[in-house]
């Protein structure tokens, strides 16, 4: 490893991480998502080293400005990324319409798109994955009123069962404004969580909760020093409408009881055993199919092979 510069190794590390997701990168994206460099680098330095490094040229191939591992079929990867981008754009239009409803609920302080949608890398079968920030003391009622219309309309995921539902809404992660630091949820060497935090795409943010979240998760910069948080874009924001007074603190125990009793057995069994499934009055996280460990192990196997 010592033969090659830190920047060369960091560039390859970044491409290796994204290779798991069939996601070729532009040079700007390589610079932005530069993984575990010893220090921050300028964008111009990335351009220069990729042009001049014989070692990187032996490891990477390029198609229309997108870089991937040599021999990975970069042309097909670029075409696949373009197709997934178009699907994600369609999903964002669906989400923006739904966000008008989100803004009616006073307990909803912020909503962001996450996972594949945050990377504009969805397929027709992908969920619309959302992270929701709620007012303290209203997490259960907020989840109830958010999920109910989509449940009644058949727009919820049917995990483990065949489904013809297109663009189901997955409300699998909630936290209150008092629980925005996620470092304690991290696994050892949890690269995925770092990428997840920085890639969140704001859809609704009433009071700057998503900016507060990014500020509180400063630990992300240890792995991704160049990755700045994404900001709100008018194409994703709903029209501001007055909230409907549906939520009162006195009703919170009722909504808690109803939803706890309806939790599927696998979620009940995993609840609060580790960071996959968290069920408290400050955080609701239902990631029973959490693949962070798998992604980490695959990535580290690639590191051993290439570095």
Structure characteristics:
307 residues; alpha+beta; Arc Repressor Mutant, subunit A; 2 domains; six-stranded mixed sheet; two-stranded antiparallel sheet; 8 strands; elongated
| Total strand segments | 8
In N-to-C order, the SSE pattern is HHHHEEHEHEHEHEHHHEEH
Sheet/helix structural class:
alpha+beta
Helical amount among residues, as a percent range?
40-55%
**What is the rounded distance between the termini?**
6 Å
User: Largest sheet, if any?
Assistant: 6 strands, mixed
Describe the structure.
The chain is α+β, with helices and mostly antiparallel strands and 307 residues long. The protein folds into 2 domains: 6-72, Orthogonal Bundle (Arc Repressor Mutant, subunit A); 106-289, no CATH class. Helix content is 43%, strand content 13%. The chain is built from 12 helices and 8 strands. The protein has helices spanning 6-19, 27-32, 43-52, 54-59, 74-102, 115-118, 139-152, 191-199, 209-216, 252-262, 265-270, 292-306; strands at residues 60-63, 66-69, 108-113, 128-134, 169-176, 201-205, 277-279, 283-286. The strands form 2 sheets. Strands 6-3-4-5-8-7 form a 6-stranded mixed sheet. Strand 1 (60-63) and strand 2 form a beta hairpin. Helix 1 packs across helix 12. It is elongated. The mean pLDDT is 93.
